[in-house]
Amino acid sequence: MWRVGIDVGGTFTDFFAWNEEDGSYKTAKVLTTKDDRSRGVLQSIETAGIPFDQISFLMHGTTTATNSLIERDYPDAAFVTTEGFRDTIEIGRQHRKALYDPYQTKPKPLIRRRHRFTIDERMSAKGDVRRELREDAAREIAREIKARGYGSVGVGFINSYANDAHERKMRDIILEEAPGVHVVISSDTRPVFREHGRFTTTAIRACLMPIMTHYFDRLSEVLAERGFTGKLLILKSNGGVMGAQNAKLRPEELIESGPAGGVAYASYLSIHAGFENIIHTDVGGTSFDVSIVEKGEGLITRDHELEWEVPVAVPMLDIHSVGAGGGSIGWVDEGGSLRMGPQSAGSTPGPACYGRGGTEPTITDANLVLGRLNPSLSDKFELDKAAAEAAIDRLAKKIGLSRLETADGMIKISCETMAQAVKGVVVARARDPRDFVLASFGGAGPMHACFVAQAMSIPQVVIPGAAGVASAFGATAMDMRHDIETFHYAALSDVKVADLNRLYDRIEADARARLAADGISDDNMELRRTAQMRYVGQTYEVETDIPSGELTDAHIPQIANAFHAAHEKEYGVSNEAFEIAFVSLSVTAVGKMKEPPVYDFSGQQSVESHATRSVYFDGTWHDTELYDGKNIAPGARMQGPAVVEYLDSIAVIPPNCSGEVDKSGNLVVTIGN
């Protein structure tokens, strides 16, 4: 049987599978079918030549949820909230994205104002009923929801994290009056304080539920028609997977579903190739993703924003994405300056050199013109160099540069955009980039990785042999995972351990039930406790490890020390004189799955190149050695400039850099000045 990972990106759908009996593997890369992404999933399996009835697990990463939200491409959803809070999801936290920009505008609200309803009810912050929810008013709203034909409804009441009785009552009334409507309540979505994040996350779930239910039902149907009887698992934003049924109920956990596979591969590299600290980067056709992996684990954030002032209050891998990919389009702004992206040619029509009707100059076209890209795209299909040159010539004419200067400028601007994204992640997490290696994934990643590393003074770049399908490979290395959280505010000095034990027992039971629903047996479950804690008076929290088992008063000093250490690691300071408080309690539940084999992607041949090609670097053509990546043996060394051609990606080693293949076939490049 085969374990299959599929990552559906904006331009390509990547495939990786390994045989659970003999450890052999297969890869494939096909163009994403945007009109129906399930077709691309099927095409990737058929291209790899694996029978559908021989697939045990299909791990699927998808950008469908993210694209639907960013493009606001979903059926109208309704939202019911406490009177006076109708505009919370639109007002936000009244932050400014750019302090001195008087023209900045907020993103469009997830749910338009005319689709938002209010009702006179009130809970206190302690969960006491201040104003009862009137049933007649609730039924009037429910009937209006039915009359307008909404397919989904979010319910978010103030302080429902402390007492959700009114939300549950409102949900039941809506379902009575409008059966068949998807109804989600904020106390189920994320029972935590700060209503803006809780309301927006609930709105996201309401908006996405019809879209993702249709997508997963459709995908399950077409897979079954072809004989698939295995288990369909969906990549989550937190670095784990869950069953498709759970995914339909919790679509807000899929926003970083695609990039999560790349982080999983970076974790695999960290553990098996000895790279303790990794800056993971992934360049696809549309975007550039960056995150940090330390000691085999991706860093988690609870402060992710889909867009400015659109927070998603669920634990997610701390991934930062920008519009810089192989399909990013070059253009000239009003001031006459050359700009790149974020708009992308995608897979349809694609870069001009694809010969599919695209006429805009892209990063892929620039790399082809500069000689860095194999004209046969690793024997997948022949690229149209003349079309690429024509597209760049039109751009060059607008800015008064030559074809080569324009193409080189396009690459440099895009690499600087990528470098700034790396800087944003490492600075925000108080890390020094010189302490890391940069791992480059994606079909377009290895062509740009060394330039990004040079800009950020990162000493080494690691390019895996499977870089072009890294997210798909990473999907097959993931475990089941669920993160469950509940609100509990208490000063550490006054906390009652009986309350902690009761709440942890409750959410651990919920966590086990979710894993069981995904088919995980009790002996394969691992639970880890954490708490969101802060110094009293702070407006942010730090995730702190909490001991397992029954807690006693003797654990309190241990918890305090763990919090001080976590705070110092994240912010560089701690102070034992300040009082500490719990804000919420969390459990991470992991269902262990079979790990993939430790693959050796190297070949058995010497380092001798098979050809040369003229490649343009820094204003000069260089006679550049070409290497076949799948044949280079461990220990092989090469001096830049060089191009290493893999099946699914191409690595560019600039002048003054050198590369060496490690024992697993990873190309490790040392960055020169």
What features would you describe in this structure?
The protein has 673 residues and is of the alpha+beta class. The protein folds into 3 domains: 70-209, 3-Layer(aba) Sandwich (Rossmann fold), CATH 3.40.50; 256-479 and 593-672, no CATH class; 480-591, Dna Ligase, domain 1 (2-Layer Sandwich). The protein is 31% helix and 27% strand. Strands 13, 14, 15, 20, 23, 24, 31, 34 and 35 form a 9-stranded mixed beta sheet that branches. A 6-stranded mixed beta sheet has the order 3-2-1-4-11-12. The chain has a 4-stranded parallel beta sheet with strand order 6-5-9-10, sandwiched between helices. Helix 4 crosses helix 5 (165-177) and helix 10 crosses helix 12 (403-428). It is globular and about 80 Å long. It comes from Pseudosulfitobacter pseudonitzschiae. Its EC number is 6.4.1.8. It is an enzyme of class 6 (ligase). Residues 3-177 form the Hydantoinase/oxoprolinase N-terminal domain.
